[in-house]
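Lab notebook, bench 4. The sequencing result for the construct came back, and we need a structural model before the next group meeting so we can plan mutations. Quick request posted to the team channel:

Model the 3D structure of this chain.
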Amino acid sequence: MSQELEHLSRRVAAGRLSRREFLGRATALGVAATFANSLLASAGRAQGPVRGGIMKGGLKGGAATDSLDPATTSGSVMGNYCYCWGEYLVALAPDLGLENRLAEEVGSSKDAKTWTMKIRKGVEFHNGKTVTAEDVVATLERHSDAKSKSGALGLLTSIDTIKANGDEVVVTLKDGNADFPYLMTDYHLVIQPNGGKDNPAAGISAGPYKVSVFEPGARCGGERFANFWQSDKMGFADQVEILAINDSTARIAALQAGQVHIVDKVEPKVVDLIKRSPNLKVEAASGPSYYCFNMLCDTPPFDNNDLRMALKLAIDREEMVDKILRGYGSVGNDFPINASYRLFPDDIEQRIFDPDKAAFHFKKSGHSGPILLQVAEAGFPGAVDAAQLYQQSCAKAGIALKVKREPDDGYWSEVWNKQPFCNTYWSGRTTQDQIYSTAYLSTAAWNDTRFHNEKFDKLLIEARAELDQDKRKNLYREMAIIVRDEGGLIVPMFAQDIDAISDKVGGYVGGRNGLMNFYALVKCWLKD
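Done. Here's the predicted structure in token form:
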């Protein structure tokens, strides 16, 4: 009986059984209420952080071309790995506020043009050197260099000067930006010794784990850093290991077999199956993640806006949300912002499936013959099925859509951002300025639709400096309409991030994005 009660009490602590249900079962077993409550209290204490073991994640998005240089990081595998070994100035808190990390204090001038960040003293890099303001300056310099290949380059183009002043870093912007501290949460901006200028792929920062193994496209791992400055908050496992498992079925199988403790990018169609497993739990986060089809605006035939409009009108968004997301998401409107953003423009007319208008624009474009769409499951879960639904809805508009399935391996290096029409996903960003600057500003390194619009760029800079929130919201509304009506982005759906975790994992809490905003592997622990 004691084993059964212990099992039940752990299920309560893990959120799998209500307190009332537990007490009812305990009573049925002849246990006094006082003793049953003491068991619950003990189980609750047992859920506190536990040190030891190897925390293993099976994640999607690994590639043989992956690098330890955080400037070129992309995909879930390397993004989450950065949070294992890397340290940042600030981080996004669960309540969408900011958590100070290496930046102990952050302040600005009244016009939001000059920002001062006081760097925390006594924090050690993995190589034994102390983190200094000069290291932070060098990091921001490297990522903001016009010749940089950094995915954060578009976020930092507004920087005028970066200087160290004792233990403070002073950043002067060309124009005011009330959201500047949020830009520092970008996962590329790992603080490195001398900014990574000497060896950007050395894998040295001040995070909770030191890089111990790195096999691009296969696995990466770290050992607990003994001198981590915040060891009471994260880094509980002795080691972390991330397996790059791009195949969705293989990820779930690895979780069910106990080979990994956490997996990401769970397909909605298997959620019910996972829920039937008594030792597994599903966690869904509603946030800014969106699944999309990208057209390169500077590449024929997609340099014709009538053709782009035809393809936007020929997609049945409701059908995709129902059949691909199975309710774990919402329809998109061909711009990258949804209600998870504070200044979301909620009065823009929702675009719907309209085969007649699609046929009109297709004919007006003057294009004839099939349109090639290249897709892979690496782009987003259910991508192939989504492409086939898209093919069927296009046919109703008289558009011949040819779907070519690409292998997951090499998709990010050979197809995405290179081929003229393909699928991808974005996890979104903390602010509207951040996602627009990363992917839709003309000069952004990751402008994966080759969208170049002078008016949009000017509005982005204007909105960035606008401190009146109502005016700022109107500027973002105008930008959204430009992207929606002139860009190469097709957003049929915003998807919840769905993770699945073993009941051996403690400390998992929800976030705006999946995997606890990339912190799951370092903030969770393995239960005894």
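DSSP finds 19 helices and 21 strands in the chain.
Will bring this to the meeting.
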